[in-house]
Amino acid sequence: xxxxxxxxxxxxLPFATPWISAAGHLTERRxxxxxxxxxxxxxxxxxxxxxxxxxxxxxxxxxxxxxERLPRMTGxxxxxxxxxxxxxxxxxxxRCGLETALLDLQARQQGVPLYRLLGGEAGHAVRLxxxxxxxxxxxxxxxxxxxxxxxxxxxxxLGSAPMTVELPLLEQLCERLPAGVQLRLDANxxxxxxxxxxxxxxxxxxxxxxxxxxxxxxxxEILNELQALARFDLALDxxxxxxxxxxxxxxxxxxxxxxxKPACLGGLLPALELIRQARQQGxxxxxxxxxxxxxxxxxxxxxxxxADALTTPAVHGLATSAWxxxxxxxxxxxxxxxxxxxxxxxxxxxxxx
Length: 353
Hints:
Blueprint: E1 3-21, E2 24-38, E3 43-48, H1 59-69, H2 78-83, H3 92-110, H4 114-117, E4 125-134, H5 139-148, E5 153-157, H6 163-175, E6 182-186, H7 193-203, E7 208-212, H8 220-229, E8 233-236, E9 257-260, H9 262-265, H10 268-280, E10 284-287, H11 294-310, E11 315-319, E12 338-340
Parallel strand pairs: 4-5, 4-11, 5-6, 6-7, 7-8, 8-9, 9-10
Antiparallel strand pairs: 1-2, 2-3, 4-12
Helix pairs in contact: 1-3, 10-11
């Protein structure tokens, strides 16, 4: 069934507390809700949420791309419109929002949940890490609350304070962690190579699950050396696009893990193809939000379910909705650190009136 309208609505979602990382501070999240509708009244939704610090285009660039392409959707089927989308070419967040809306509508028209359209399996529970924000004196309280809620992988942002300040806090926190709980660390390119070598030697003695983007200058040779030194996975995130060339296969990587952010890759389908290629060389993939609204989190959970069916299931970084004081609709329900997607068609997102 063909699309009869395609619309763009701006949104602004305040954070309950500022989101702090080495890349800067955020007090709110802005973006656009993309909505495509067919003549039966079914709607597909997507979230176009640019975040230049994460590697996307700017907000004006995103809006211009969407405003140019939305009128072209009318009269096409969702499948045809999706196949007609150009490569991201500098506008990955905008393309991701539009592609997601089209996939949502396509799944709704077929009467299947989006994860089935993407190759996922029914009844699969998607495991998530807790998002604790920046490491500080109150991290212990946030960690205790997350553990009580059923999370056993806790993610912390590092690099917003000197390493001499953060490392003692980190070691104190680790002393309080129960057995089986690990930390996932993200430095957002905060450190020099010599600092990182020293830190990894200390982290090797702690319950660390992985470390994302430690290097200010992420040279391949140094990352390869650091991964050999670390007893845990190092991960590419912001520097991942530098390894990707349009139309070419994923080259050999210097780390054991990729952080997959569809808003930075141009959509769910490009992300899924990257996961397939990473699987062939034994590289793990974790799907992580770029602080999207609930309209963006729902499809990311479906992508995670599809990725888990394709390769070794991971613990994904999608538990970020609680950072907002309000949202566009209800977010996926997390129980014991997991999201279980139901049989409802589409993504499951319902726009709040």
